[in-house]
Design a protein that fits this description.
Layout: H1 3-9, E1 14-19, E2 24-26, H2 27-43, E3 51-55, H3 61-70, E4 75-78, H4 85-95, E5 99-102, H5 110-116, E6 121-124, E7 133-134, H6 135-140, E8 154-155, E9 157-158, E10 168-169, H7 184-191, E11 199-202, H8 209-221, E12 224-228, H9 233-243, E13 247-250, H10 252-259, H11 263-267, E14 276-279, H12 286-296, E15 300-304, E16 312-316, H13 317-322, E17 326-332, E18 334-338, E19 351-356, H14 367-372, E20 384-388, E21 394-399, E22 404-406, E23 409-411, H15 413-420, E24 426-436, E25 440-449, H16 457-468, E26 479-482, H17 496-504
Parallel strand pairs: 1-12, 3-4, 3-5, 4-8, 5-6, 6-7, 11-12, 11-13, 13-14, 14-15, 25-26
Antiparallel strand pairs: 1-2, 9-10, 15-16, 16-17, 17-21, 18-19, 19-20, 20-21, 22-23, 24-25
Amino acid sequence: MHPQIHAKMSPNKPAVVMVPGGEIVTFRQLEDRSNKAAHYLRSCGLTRGDTIALCLENNPIFFEIVWAAQKSGLYFVCISSRLTAGEIEYIVRDSGARLLITSKNVACDTEALAKLLSDIALSMICPCDSPYVFWQAATEGLPSTPIADQSAGADMLYSSGTTGKPKGIRSELPDNEAINAITMMDKVGALFGVNQESVYLCPAPLYHSAPLRWTMCVQKAGGTAIVLEHFDAELALVTIERHKVTIAQFVPTHFVRMLKLPSDVRSKHDVSSLRCAIHSAAPCPVQIKEAMIDWWGPVLQEYYSCTEGIGFTMISSEEWLLRKGSVGKAVVGNVKICRDDGHLLPPRQEGTIYFEGGLPLSYHNDPERTASALNALGWATVGDVGWVDEDGYLYLTDRKSFMIISGGVNIYPQEIENLLTTHPRVMDAAVIGAPDEEMGERVVAVIQPMDWTDANPEFAGELTGWMRERLSGVKLPRQIDFMKELPRHPTGKLYKRLLRDSYWGKADSRIVG
């Protein structure tokens, strides 16, 4: 199916509902607007295989642009609205985009961005002055009928850059050029029960791979996407109740935020309409997931994948309760655990996670990075570490690049972070390695407390004692610092590189406030 088909079958059905703003876009409106946009893209000289970029906040116009690109055979690059002008320029140029569509509501200075991209076509969805073309004015007078040469385009997404420069993932355009051809994402959506009756909650930025792909998957199936303009824990619960949401996609940080709400706030909202609460992006602490299942029932469905699409595992609540901590069995590709020398490891031995037989991996403009992600057998990895049990269920440890080596011992921060987020007075936590003359690296915990008045040595000492009862001595942080807000991507990913660099740039630095 496709929104174009649903526009004929159910023209007045909402394709998009924005929250809290309340704007509704029906399938008929989405079809008309995306057709006008497609005509505009063609008028800009864009043809099949070309690339556009959009840097927008969660906005209903986002959908008319991506669906226009999808039916015009174009690649569409979705860029974080929180990046600087220089960071946006890097992605636009690296991707080869010939048009950038942006908004005055993005974080960067759009005038500075225009100067950096003076040779690129620019458009703005807000009323604007030259050199930006006002998007609505440019598309308004164009035909609302489909372009004559429709063909299937695809997203070209960039990694969030939490460990370095963003990496572009550009697959070949589909062999089947039909805009309603079945894709891998359609098949994955069907596994989670996405259909025409779905009411899907998107609580995260649309420029990220999972929210974008899940939302488009739901709209392609004929379901309704309820999109939060910004995540708020209680607003998410209110929205589930008010719109009778049946399926939603979260990251563990969202769960933590909702569980930190007062119990009377949590209990007053009816979430019984939920049939499937998908979560991914980072390992979910066992205690957090247990608490969510106790609260919402066995509706949590977890998957492990990546923007690169090299493989996909999934696990139901029922399976997880029997194998706590697992992210499931592979449904796309085959999981392989290898040593650093490439040797295949047996069950319950920890190593680098590879996928055999998944989608081909290729980083745009970076053959060296592509080659480094593949082993001699062609198995692909994104650098995560984990192990499998005898039945093939995968368990994640952490990213290899985040590993701390202290006194010759390998320490993975994820376990420590998972523990810290369960403390009732901790809102968020990051664990990194800082330089240490004796040990090489020492374990440092950077804490975002629920109440900033707790940012003191007394609470640090209390946390140390609390962790000592739950962690082996080698994993115990030797230093606890406080930060008012950790540098997290809106999708939940932690910019750990930024934290780590601040310590390695100056050996005795502290991040406080």
